[in-house]
Design goal:
By secondary structure, this protein is an alpha+beta fold. The protein is 37% helix and 16% strand. The protein has four domains: 381 residues, Creatine Kinase, Chain A, domain 2 (2-Layer Sandwich), CATH 3.30.590.20; 39 residues, no CATH class; 140 residues, D-amino Acid Aminotransferase, Chain A, domain 1 (2-Layer Sandwich), CATH 3.30.470.20; 66 residues, Dna Ligase, domain 1 (2-Layer Sandwich). Strands 1, 2, 3, 4, 5, 6 and 7 form a seven-stranded antiparallel β-sheet that branches. The chain has a five-stranded antiparallel β-sheet with strand order 21-16-15-22-23. A hairpin with a 4-residue loop joins strand 8 and strand 9.
């Protein structure tokens, strides 16, 4: 099989970088002081027996984070970062993840190490067996399992260039077996570059049989978590591989197939025998230590290098018969694993040859990656830059445990710095990020179909839901959001149903609207676009208004929409009622954008100070929006006889907006428990009339402490089909209302979230 020639075919080249990735990352849970925790698996995480993302490995303290299959490096890292965030913020606040592959200080007595408390008795029995066979201490070592699949289009194109195999499945099997043999032969290079478990301490060994000096990777050496020497398996063909595994199980050298701890596993079915029917779909690389200098244990450069390395394994030829080739690789791998991390490798010449050939491959196949190859090739001549050497340097400077605790705390602080965001998906709307967080936490599979359009697919068992913008779901009819997007129609529908709404008129041209000035000039009124949300283009006039200011308000509104509404201003306080499935889940008082004077600084300076709050950001990706100083704000200041360079008196509150939207810089205050039930029922009834399942409806209430009795006790000024949830989850003042969880409960009642 001349794969080098096959890969050089013009019809193959466009697919060479096509691949699918999956990452399983293990981590021990420790206290913020670096001590192994005594607590059980986090209770906030959904049932670990079916959880697709967060499970328990050998011990109760050992998390296993599992990404879905991804088709790009950025995508797989985004999911890993998100799952990492969810896991960290689901743990008790005084716990963090240990960043090293080697565990923290373990209990003196091995029986104090808790085996995972799983529901299936068979799973517990298997872990007890492993504890007896290998010892609990070795089981506490963590690492990365990297799943890699060549793109299906790539494999198909390679298949079409050859004539040796008639079956696509047979071709894939032959291809992946070659990869497995080459990986076992050359895997030492990954250990040299990314090995990061250099210290052999009592926490890991039960005897004195251990290296006396630091090494590159205890975990990947024969001292590591490997099978006993009498377990031998051939990689010559899938048939021999399967037969040898079955023989080892039959002879009692392995309890079952999954006890075979090879550096690479063929995947495609639950058992190896299944591979004869399914074919080998992907391989699992199991020799990668945690990168303690990266928050999630692996970074983009490492993944991209592994991808190029996997292409090299496909491109290069074997030099010896299968079993000899693998045996030579095992010997070299163990030698490199046990080398001193700060010293050059004895296999420097072969390493240089591999890099030279990888660069030649990249040039011939027109692949990107020259800079990446140069970066890691330098590490061959500078072993001090490898991960193991850097870990050793930290140990020599301050001790491994101190250094690991500092790194763990740094990553812990990063996870908690902005708890309203979800790493990996920060550019999405905040409500969508919070929905993704809750879905991942509770074990609902979440796939982002379109980041820009905020489209997410949720899956639990056979139950699938599509969600847009965090709360637009299949539970609403198509007409409901269209109705609420049209403020004129919304008012008509509500008024005809008997609800109080402000009187007003809709204008389709600025010329016609200007002629209405005499009708509104002497009373309080509002100018707003017909079909926008987030308070865009709204101007409120509470007293006698000049024609200049009236026309300015019209210009602002018409800049946002082709039609504009001018309506009466209803006196009272505005409240946002969040209604979902005939229940009011939250009520928010929103205070318009404002600053408090100190008698020294200008309004512009006070705004800058308030905007420096980390809770404030732009484009709804923070709980509060930054206050702007645009035309609307300056018009509001003008009505108060102020400018942006004015200096307010001490404790003087200056409002920069009439409308109280958080999206225009307002403050959010939760008042759910303070609002009389009669107003909540009004909100529920109004949303039902609009035919919506989820809506944010804005009520003006002059006196919230007075129960609703007469029409003048309230007014409905707006209904929103995609109400922001993050302002309820992270209010400026008051209790958090986790509305994204309410959305999931609504969509998945069978889960009892």
């Amino acid at each position: 099989m001349n794969t080098k020639k096959m890969m050089a075919q013009e019809k193959v080249k466009p697919f060479l970088l096509q691949a699918r990735y999956g990452i399983e990352k293990e981590s021990q849970r420790v206290t913020l002081n670096g001590d192994l925790v005594q607590t059980d698996h986090p209770t906030l995480v959904g049932n670990r027996n079916f959880h697709p993302y967060i499970q328990t490995d050998f011990s109760e303290t050992q998390l296993e984070l599992i990404t879905p299959v991804a088709e790009s490096v950025n995508e797989v890292l985004a999911y890993l970062e998100a799952i990492h965030d969810v896991a960290q913020r689901s743990m008790p606040k005084d716990e963090m993840m240990w960043p090293l592959s080697m565990p923290p200080i373990l209990p003196e007595k091995e029986e104090a190490i808790q085996i995972a408390k799983l529901e299936r008795h068979a799973d517990v029995l298997y872990r007890r067996y492993l504890a007896r066979e290998y010892g609990k201490r070795k089981q506490m070592v963590s690492g990365i399992h990297f799943n890699f699949e060549y793109g299906l289009d790539l494999v198909r194109q390679l298949f079409l260039t050859q004539t040796e195999e008639a079956s696509m499945e047979d071709f894939k099997t032959r291809l992946y077996m070659k990869i497995a043999r080459n990986f076992l032969r050359y895997r030492w290079l990954l250990t040299y570059l990314f090995g990061a478990s250099p210290l052999s301490e009592d926490r890991y060994f039960d005897s004195e049989d251990r290296p006396k000096e630091p090494v590159r990777s205890i975990r990947t050496s024969h001292y590591g978590y490997v099978n006993k020497p009498d377990v031998q398996v051939s990689y010559e063909t899938l048939t021999r591989y399967s037969e040898d595994l079955a023989e080892n199980v039959a002879q009692g050298r392995l309890s079952e197939e999954k006890e075979f701890y090879a550096p690479i596993r063929m995947r495609g079915g639950k058992k190896v025998a299944d591979l004869f029917h399914t074919g080998i779909r992907y391989v699992e690389l199991r020799n990668i230590d945690l990168n303690p200098f990266d928050r999630v244990g692996i970074d983009a450069d490492e993944i991209e290098f592994i991808h190029l390395f996997m292409l090299y394994l496909l491109w290069t030829d074997e030099k010896l018969p299968a079993d000899e080739w693998v045996a030579e690789g095992n010997r070299i791998s163990d030698e490199v694993s046990l080398e001193h991390p700060a010293k050059p490798t004895a296999h420097l010449a072969e390493g240089q040859r591999i890099f030279t050939e990888m660069q030649l491959m990249a040039d011939e196949l027109e692949l990107d990656g020259a800079d990446l190859l140069k970066k890691y090739q330098v590490w061959l001549d500078r072993p001090e830059e490898t991960l193991a050497a850097r870990v050793l340097a930290l140990d020599e400077a301050e001790g491994q445990d101190v250094a690991a605790t500092k790194l763990g705390r740094k990553f812990y602080d990063q996870a908690w710095a902005r708890p309203y965001q979800l790493a990996g998906f920060q550019e999405m709307e905040l409500s969508t990020q919070n929905l993704l967080f809750d879905a991942i936490q509770k074990g609902i599979e979440a796939e982002v179909l379109d980041r820009q359009d905020q489209f997410v697919k949720l899956q639990h068992g056979d139950h699938q839901e599509l969600v847009k913008n965090g709360n637009m779901t299949s539970k609403d009819t198509y007409i409901a959001p269209l109705l609420m997007a049209n403020k004129t129609v919304t008012k008509l529908v509500l008024a005809r149903a008997g609800f109080r709404v402000p009187d007003g008129e809709t204008f389709s041209s600025i010329e016609a609207a200007k002629k209405a000035y005499p009708r509104f000039a002497q009373k309080a009124f509002v100018i707003k676009p017909k079909s926008t949300n987030y308070g865009l283009g709204i101007t409120i006039f509470k007293g006698e208004t000049s024609m200049t200011d009236f026309n300015a308000g019209l210009a602002i509104a018409f800049a946002e929409d082709d039609e504009v509404i001018i309506e009466e201003f209803l006196p009272g306080t505005e409240y946002r009622f969040f209604v979902i499935d005939h229940q009011v889940k939250a009520v928010l008082l929103r205070t318009p954008a404002n600053v408090i004077g100190d008698g020294e600084r200008t309004i512009e300076e006070l705004v800058a100070e308030k905007n420096a709050d980390p809770l404030r950001g732009l484009n709804h990706r923070s709980p509060l929006e930054k206050i702007q100083l645009g035309d609307l704000e300056q018009l509001m200041l003008k009505e108060q006889g102020l400018r942006i360079d004015s200096v307010p008196e001490k404790d003087q509150q200056v409002f920069l907006r009439e409308n109280s939207n958080v999206s225009t810089g307002g403050d959010s205050i939760d008042v759910t428990d303070d609002i009389h039930e009669s107003y909540k029922q009004l909100a529920i009834d109004a949303v039902e009339v609009l035919g919506a399942s989820i809506s944010g409806i804005d009520l003006i209430i002059p006196d919230k402490d007075k129960p609703y009795e007469v029409h003048e006790d309230y007014g409905i000024i707006e209904a929103n089909f995609n109400p922001m949830m993050h302002m309820h989850i992270y209010p400026y003042i008051g209790k958090s209302r986790r509305l994204t969880l309410d959305v999931l409960r609504f969509l998945y009642p069978e889960m009892n979230i």
